[in-house]
Amino acid sequence: MRLFFIILTAYIIPLPLLAQTLKGRIINEKGEAIPYATIYVEEIALGIVSDDLGEFQTTLENGQYTFIASSLGHEKKKIPVTISQKEATLEIILQEKV
Q: pTM of the full predicted structure?
């Protein structure tokens, strides 16, 4: 039983070390925050919603992802993102629909 817990601990402890924090902000071309915009991460089918300041945060494993950012009254934007460091920052600028 003790061996089981040692092996289980060896596999569980490193898991959070693989995840990286990604913080970001969604703004318009004037630099104003876009509240409650959505970001969809295609590869893992993850949806994220920005807060009232246009800010968002999530954890992802190292790798390459495709983000699709959208908000009512703005054009959708597809962004390739590479996560490779402990903490990354991303600023997404959405254009207003005409």
A: 0.77
